[in-house]
């Protein structure tokens, strides 16, 4: 299927590793010009160097810490000076684990700025060129925790649920401008983040990481963790022309782990 991404420009936030890197690489392979943004530019440059020659030239690295409003503004200024982007993938690293009864107020505020408020602002700034062209894609990576809260991830469950409300509201506001707004909800995709969470849960319960992983897999109908490429393929479809009538949706990529309908 031709996704129609040739000559499109995309910004992928949180692209140094894991899901963000997989998304950025996949969009570039589909023909898009990709701005891969993260705090660790050196990590982005490392995976860019490993891409096929014909793809490598379509990707450039940008410095972006979503917790730093000045950096958010600088990235927006740079991209708007070049005409903006057609595709925006909002993706932030997960916050520290913790239970709701213990997370302190300052942690809520700090993480909300990084995971929500500054992404809302970045999106708002990049919207006008999409509206002028009557074409745009805004895709936000969240978590299956917004449908089925995940134990020991109070910050993620709470803040990403707020992002869901924003995303659905924005989708309604810009649909007539040819802009789609969707969320993608990863389950247990095999990334460094999942490894860290498994270790945190193992430490909390005083069991081995292997036991935690085995327990998690036993609850996934597919019987395994997902691969980053499987997740990125769904994002690439939503970013493309064929998904022009999909908006205001939240799509699970979790191997069937979420049991609710």
Outline of the structure:
The protein has helices at 18-29, 41-49, 53-56, 69-81, 105-133, 154-174, 192-205, 209-218, 228-239; strands at residues 9-13, 33-38, 59-63, 87-90, 136-141, 179-186, 250-253.
Describe what you observe in this structure.
With 261 residues, this protein is α/β, with parallel strands linked by helices. It has 2 domains: 9-189 and 228-253, NAD(P)-binding Rossmann-like Domain (Rossmann fold, 3-Layer(aba) Sandwich), CATH 3.40.50.720; 190-225, no CATH class. Helix content is 48%, strand content 15%. The chain has helices spanning 18-29, 41-49, 53-56, 69-81, 105-133, 154-174, 192-205, 209-218, 228-239; strands at 9-13, 33-38, 59-63, 87-90, 136-141, 179-186, 250-253. Strands 3-2-1-4-5-6-7 form a 7-stranded parallel beta sheet, with helices on both faces. The protein starts with 8 loop residues before the first strand and ends in an 8-residue tail after the last strand.
Structural class: alpha/beta
Q: Mind describing the biggest β-sheet? A: 7 strands, parallel
Q: For the record, what CATH class of the largest domain applies?
A: Alpha Beta
- Averaging pLDDT over every residue, what do you get? 96
Q: Examine the secondary-structure arrangement and name the CATH architecture of the largest domain.
A: 3-Layer(aba) Sandwich
Q: Approximately how much helix is present in the residues?
A: 40-55%
Q: How many angstroms does the end-to-end distance come to? A: 29 Å
SSE order in H/E notation?
EHEHHEHEHEHEHHHE
Shape, please? globular
What is the topology, as strand order, of the major beta sheet?
3-2-1-4-5-6-7
Q: What is the total number of structural domains?
A: 2
Total E-strand runs = 7
